[in-house]
Amino acid sequence: MTAATAEITPEMVAEHGLSDEEYQRILAALGRAPNLVELGIFSVMWSEHCSYKSSRRHLKKLPTEAPWVICGPGENAGVIDIGDGDAAIFKMESHNHPSYIEPYQGAATGVGGILRDVFTMGARPIANLNALRFGRPDHPKMRHLIGGVVSGIGGYGNCVGVPTVGGEVNFDAAYDGNILVNAMTVGVAKQDKIFYSAATGLGNPIVYVGSKTGRDGIHGATMASADFDENSDEKRPTVQVGDPFTEKLLIEACLELMATDAIVAIQDMGAAGLTSSSVEMASKGGAGIKLVMDRVPQREAGMTPYEMMLSESQERMLMVLKPGREAEAEAIFRKWELDFAVIGEVTGTGRMVLEWRGDVVCDIPLGPLADDAPEYDRPHLTLDEYKAWAQVRPLEDLPESTDIAADLLKLMASPNLASRRWIWEQYDSQVGADTVQKPGGDAAVVRVHGTDKALAMTTDCTPRYVYADPYEGGKQAIAEAYRNLCAVGARPLAVTNCLNFGNPQRPEIMAQLVEALRGMGDACRALDFPIVSGNVSLYNESKATGGGSAILPTPAIGGVGLLEDWRKSATIGFKGEGEDIVLIGDPWGACGQSIWLREIYGRTDGEPPRVDLAEERRHGEFIRKVIGRGQATAVHDISDGGLIVALAEMALAGGFGAKFGGMINALDLFSEDQGCYVVTTADADQLLAEASDAGILAKVIGTVGGGNLEAAHWQIPLSDLRAAHEGFFPALMSNEL
């Protein structure tokens, strides 16, 4: 019995992650029962990972347009105009489930996949970032997971020659059984050399380039659309295996061919491999597609069409070429020692037809696979109902710190605030020689090669805020990305995102997604900061022993901004003795959900800090002007840990201490107020006058100098702060905690 004649049983349907209702839709679309190849294709295309069937209707509410947006969501990556005929192309994606099962390869292939999303559009990648979430540091698996993920990111990124310049790391017990690995790539292209994925031209050849197809990664998209259980390790074969050296060759070969006019359309083989790439190309072009499976380059003997179509082997691309350009293209790919094969052609049938050994083994209309895939309006709680379910206690009886210095030292050594140097020193952040600001600041800054311009980039999200209030947490994630870009002097231009949530069939989880998107949308509109690309990762839950249930809702935000002159970017480190420290904004004591409350008192009380979007924009625009005029010698925003942690980070980055006064209680020092910045300047009077003219609250709170961080009643030597801040990761990874 062959794949084309195997009888489909209810058990097989369930194993492919399809519901009874979805299977009935398949029967109606085909007018007959599918064979195994067709069932597999429907299963991956209708998976949550590929179809966004639970989130699509809500994603449509996000703002995606602006005068500088060239291409918004729907292509491999978003594209924005950065002037002079240049474009920035960028996207963030998840590789969560694979990284939990096999951390090195899961993280490595996450980097490889997002690189392909960017260079498939004609861009040369100039920077990688990552957003990582781990469980409790003392969880039995966590050191293994941290070490594997960091090694995988570094191993792939370093070898492929793209600098890893920024990111973030959080720890929470909610990620014990389901870590998050989100990867982001930023590239640069000429606006007249951007490539899209719509397959057009009746009879045009479809070519396969890159590595051979193997059996790794089969059902990867389906696996990424289901909860984990105690048998998750058995899914190891669904994790892809990456080769960064082949990826480097693929980048160069694709860019060389792109310099010609031979390419009609191009798509990388990411989730669902050859299936999703071919379906998406044909459906976007309103065409049909015919593939001859015998011609697919294979690295394993006896592969079936089912395996070839569902494999997620890495470093592969699919292209539509102009007729007669096959030999020219093949010569380029052979020169780079990559596979090249003409495996099919564009048709006008509107169908996907696969042939193997002379037989038709698949014949599916493309509409039901792509545009007409299931779209669900999942039930969800209202925001008030959700808050009642979440049972976040109101913030009452706020404690008074009896030892500010001791609290600060403990915070600086805690998992969520400790230095990430151990991580980012394993990444090559300088390759390419265009990195202006490496990891450790508010945002990374990378020059646009051969110009004075630079792109600033950051990843941000505060999951504990999103859990307590998804709407405010969604707003805050966008606002913090905006703020971090402004803090280096960049004009924020656009957002990519990776929406990591639990099981959308639970109304409380769906409420997190819906409300977070509503908050994100409101913030993007208010800040003129559109969303141009992204990814949705649902079913991030674990029933495994020792794991929790759903992760914290984590809508990770990747922000990109533009500096007209890279030399004018601001950094966080104090620069010189005697400079004034100025606070921009008006902290009002937002200690709900703060790190201080959690780490010092073990409490998770209160509402997250409110975000005033009008104030956020006004403050950001003012900070950018101050930086552009050269008035600010250092800039840092206030976020996790509050004002005192911001000051400590500035002191450690610059190697200078500081003395400040006026604010002596914990509420002033540890509150995580939004929209606030700390600035140092040699001319505070002028800065204060300009702030007053702009209607912005600003005041001098201290002076740079000395070897301590000190106030009226306490002081901490910088050496003690540095020891506390730098000690966590080395101790954790050497098993000394």
Q: What does this molecule look like?
A:
There is one protein chain. The longest helix is centred in the last third of the chain and has 21 residues, at 507-527. It is globular and about 85 Å long. β14 (435-437) and β15 form a beta hairpin. α19 (470-487) runs parallel beside α20. It has a domain at 570-737: PurM-like C-terminal domain (Phosphoribosyl-aminoimidazole Synthetase, Chain A, domain 2). The strands form 4 sheets. Strands 8-10-7-11-9-12-13 form a 7-stranded mixed sheet. The protein has 26 helices and 26 strands. It is an alpha+beta fold.
Mean pLDDT: 93
Indicate the low-confidence ranges by residue numbers. 221-225, 231-236
Work out the radius of gyration: 26 Å
Helix content: 25-40%
Give a nutshell description of this structure:
With 737 residues, the protein is α+β, with helices and mostly antiparallel strands.
